[in-house]
Structures are given as structure tokens and as C-alpha cells.
Design a protein that fits this description.
The protein has helices at residues 30-47, 50-66, 94-100, 103-113, 141-148, 152-170, 184-200, and strands at 15-16, 24-25, 28-29, 77-78, 81-82, 85-86, 178-179. The longest helix has 19 residues, at 152-170. The chain is globular and about 45 Å long. By secondary structure, the protein is mostly helical. The protein has a 3-stranded antiparallel β-sheet. A two-stranded antiparallel sheet has the order 1-2. Strands 5-6 form a two-stranded antiparallel sheet.
């Protein structure tokens, strides 16, 4: 639910830098995706909770889309920064969201993924609010749907439409550098994660 997860393009950032799990170190590592895909798959097996299955599948979607070479090996990592600023690729101002989405979608994303005009992403050195937002959930989607007076299915459908539009817009940004090394051990972990998910799902 926190900022360590990429709610627009999926996959996990490397670690959280604060006690609230809001601000991540924005780098994405292949081995984290592999181990977390296995963990969420096993969590789904143990509990039957659909959100665990969904997260596992989204992690794998990210890896297959963004971290797979033409020869089908898996790349090692994506950097945290682009254009000289950490997290710039991933954060959103309210104005940027408004340029992509209509009014109803903007209101939905603002409420569900916590987008504010003043922002929630502070400059690390000064603590100054930057106006940018790290998208995150404060509660589960089921709790949010109940609070907003709609079914979980309706909220998920509306949110997915907005997420897809934001993803398409984000793809036009300058991407962080991709570390295209293909390491045997990390690839082994990723293959194990895919194999487990394939057998369970």
C-alpha cells in the first residue's frame, strides 16, 4: 500500500527511507521482484487473499514488460534517478495528473492514491515540500470502496482506467537508466518466481 510499491507501473522499489513506508529509494532490483513475487504467491496460497495474487501478477507483469531482454534474459535493475533527480520519473504533481485525467478521474486518484496540491514528497536535504506526490494507499481498496460508497469491483475498474492513462503518459517521460547486465543467479531467482506463480495461478 505504501510508496515502496509502484502503483502506476508495478514492481517494488528497493527499500523505504522513512518509518511511514512512504518515501522509497526509487531503484528497482530484479532480485527484489523475484523474491517478492514468490512471497506474495506463497501468501496467496496460505490465505487465499486476492490482493496477494494481484500483487504477484503485477510484479511479474512489470518484469516481463520492462526487465526482459530480446533474448529473454532478465535485466538487473532500473536506477532511482532520471534527469538528475531521484524519483522524478515516478512522482506526480496535481497539475500533471489533471493534464492526463478528466475531473472525475482526478478526484478519484487524488482520494485513493493521495495526490495533493502541496505534494507529499519532501526534498531530502532541506525537508522542503516539492509539490510532487508519491502515490500510495492509506487503506486497502476494499476499505476505500466502502468509504466512498461503491463496490470494490467498481472502484478497481475506475482506478484501472485512470492508472492505465497515467502509465501511458508516464511512458513519455525520460526513463531511469536500465542496468542491462544479465546475471545468472538473479535470473535463476526470477525463473523460480515465475515457475512458482505459473504452477499456483
Amino acid at each position: 500500500e505504501g510508496g515502496i510499491y509502484d502503483h502506476i507501473g508495478f514492481g517494488f522499489h528497493r527499500y523505504s527511507t522513512d518509518a511511514h513506508w512512504l518515501v522509497p529509494h526509487f531503484e528497482k532490483m530484479l532480485y527484489d521482484q523475484a523474491l517478492l513475487a514468490m512471497t506474495y504467491t506463497e501468501a496467496y496460497q496460505a490465505t487465499g487473499r486476492e490482493e496477494f495474487r494481484k500483487t504477484a501478477e503485477e510484479i511479474l507483469q512489470y518484469v516481463m514488460r520492462d526487465m526482459t531482454s530480446p533474448e529473454s534474459g532478465f535485466y538487473s535493475a532500473e536506477d532511482a534517478d532520471s534527469e538528475g533527480a531521484e524519483g522524478k520519473f515516478y512522482v506526480w504533481t496535481l497539475e500533471q495528473v489533471e493534464r492526463v485525467l478528466d475531473r472525475d478521474q482526478t478526484e478519484l486518484v487524488s482520494q485513493v492514491l493521495n495526490v495533493y496540491s502541496k505534494g507529499n514528497f519532501r526534498e531530502e536535504a532541506t525537508g522542503r515540500v516539492t509539490g510532487a506526490n508519491i502515490l500510495h494507499l492509506r487503506q486497502s481498496l476494499a476499505e476505500t470502496a466502502s468509504r466512498m460508497g461503491m463496490s470494490l469491483e467498481e472502484l478497481e475498474s475506475r482506478l484501472e482506467e485512470a492508472r492505465s492513462a497515467l502509465f501511458r503518459a508516464r511512458e513519455k517521460r525520460i526513463h531511469p537508466h536500465k542496468d542491462d547486465k544479465i546475471l545468472t543467479d538473479w535470473n535463476g531467482l526470477m525463473i523460480a518466481g515465475l515457475s512458482l506463480a505459473g504452477s499456483v495461478f
